[in-house]
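Today's session is about reading a structure prediction critically. Students often jump straight to the picture, but the first step is always the sequence itself: look for stretches that repeat, for charged clusters, for runs of hydrophobic residues. Only then move on to the predicted structure, which in these notes is written as discrete structure tokens rather than atom positions. Here is the chain we will use throughout the hour.
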Amino acid sequence: MNSRSKYKTKQREILLDYFKTVPGVHVTASDVCDYFKSHEVPIGKSTVYRNLENLVDEGVITKYIIDANSPACFEYATQGSHEEDAVCYHCKCEKCGKLIHLHCEELEEIQSHFIREHHFKMDPVRTVFYGLCDSCLQGK
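Below is the predicted structure for this chain, in token form.
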């Protein structure tokens, strides 16, 4: 536990409680602020940003930076998720910006192939496939 994690503020607990309700979902700091605003929870943007970074430092949430054109997104780091050897890729919709978190055996096979045949280990967290999500494909 680092020195930051010893401060259990009300805002930190509110933020942590929010993340526990959206496991496996990527959210941006703006999404978090919008949620609190829509639920009339008095928590400022700077407090959200500061607490997000503190929770990342503590390993409670995971921060993803997909590309220079997208805001960082965060996900509740449930126990056993994102293990070092787990293959976890992302897909990003080029139309709506939706980010999809992928865990599947086929991608694990590709990861193994790259290591075995090309002597190259990809960084799954930083590997992003670009295309169109199902909603955008269907014109929704």
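Discussion point for the tutorial: Strands lie at 27-28, 61-64, 73-76, 89-93, 99-102, 128-131.
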